[in-house]
TrEMBL record:
Protein name as catalogued: CBM20 domain-containing protein
Family annotation (Gene3D superfamilies): Immunoglobulins
Similarity section: Belongs to the 5'-AMP-activated protein kinase beta subunit family.
Domain of life the protein comes from: Bacteria
Database matches in PROSITE patterns: CBM20
TM regions (residue ranges): none
Classification via InterPro entries: AMPK1_CBM (IPR032640), CBM20 (IPR002044), CRP1_MDG1_kinase (IPR050827), Ig-like_fold (IPR013783), Ig_E-set (IPR014756)
Species, as recorded: Muriicola marianensis
Boundaries of every CBM20 domain copy: 8-98
CDD domains: E_set_Isoamylase_like_N
One Pfam family it belongs to: AMPK1_CBM
Amino acid sequence: MAITKQYLKSKPVVKVTFTVPAEDAKKVAVVGDFNNWNPKGSMLKKLKNGNFKGTFDLPKENTYEFRYLVDGTYVNETEADRYQWNDYAGAENAVLEL
């Protein structure tokens, strides 16, 4: 798994690219507090090499909790900036700091 961040000088946003290796998966989405944990509009595209990838513009100078939704199962990013306990989920969420 990987996250790349591209800070833009012309806009107050960061282009964040999420890459998830999941050859056997049918669908992968990134969900978090930046999209109300809704997978609609946050699906990642499957590449020929088996990875799923997507880029999103997120407001900079913010912190976001997120997880991947891989065929209906929540998965954390191994390269997250940090992790935050979530009582509602009863698990840790990955945290993205921009």
